[in-house]
Design a protein that fits this description.
Layout lengths: L1 E6 L4 H10 L5 E7 L8 H4 L11 E2 L3 H4 L5 E4 L7 H10 L3 E4 L10 H7 L7 H5 L1 E2 L2 H10 L2 E3 L3 H14 L8 E9 L5 H6 L9 E3 L8 H12 L4 E9 L5 E8 L6 H11 L6 E3 L6 H4 L5 E8 L4 E8 L3 H16 L2
Parallel strand pairs: 1-2, 1-4, 2-3, 4-5, 5-7, 6-7, 8-10, 12-13
Antiparallel strand pairs: 8-11, 9-10, 11-14, 13-14
Amino acid sequence: MKNITIIGGRAITAENLLNILVNDKNVTVKHVTSSSDEEKRVEEFYPQLKGKLSLPFEKYDLEKFKDDTNIFFLCVGHGEGFEVAKELYDNTNALIIDLSANFRLINPKDYEDWYKFSHPYPEYLEIAAYGMPELNSEEIKKSRLIACPGCYPTSVILALVPLLKSGIEINKNVTIVATSGISGAGRKAVEDMGFPNPVENIRAYKVGVHQHTPEMEQGAKLFGGKEITMTFVPQVGSFKNGIISEIIVDVLGSFSLEDLKQKYKDFYQNDSYVDITDALPEIKNVAGTNNIEIALTFDVRTNKLIITSALDNTIKGASGQAIQNMNLHLNH
């Protein structure tokens, strides 16, 4: 039995972690921290947990947590919690799974260019394992600090890597149009949108400058072995959870679409959460699950391959993948 502490207990990622972990007989949630709700109980903030979890929100306290915690999940914002992660790594033997972007990128300069802050502990970027279980399992098993991927990068990297490894010649300038539910912007954004009755809308944002761009390009190189430059057009819609991504690739040579589909199926044959489909993926098929759907179509007229993927940004793109990393590390 492993004991878990969640740092940043009011985040959407923390809620989804709790929803899953309370049903896992191999773990016990021991502590949940919050800087603003110390007097409130976790099950009062998350009514769905009544009868399953009875804990107060607590202030972060390393001395209190370090002796009874085997696994820490960090659900703090990007650019926050560096000191906590470092302190936990240096002063405990626990597994640390960070759901922020703080340790995802290999090159510290990418934080300056895309996140607009200087990374205070660049040496930990070499220690952290990029937490994409289907592509980086051996590093995840070995590392005690795991950096969970972003939601957009999960939808793109898993969909693109088999193509990059297929031997098919492509233009290295790739276009991605992806639409996310509002939960990707955090709990306040969901509340501001007035769920469950939001105003119907879809809009583009951070076109060409979204901070997930270097992570996606890094994943293409790290796992696909190719330098890819991505034009990224992110959009947000007035639905709560989910991402659908369209990856548009210029094919430079001839190929068989059916053979490529089979290569995708072979590539992910041992990965139960990846589904290569004939029908185009839909968010409704994956919402509330840790699954990702991927489909391939080819526009003969323009010679473009379109790879479509769909996942739940809060589960496979965040908390579910974090637990997948935990189980892989622990050999569950």
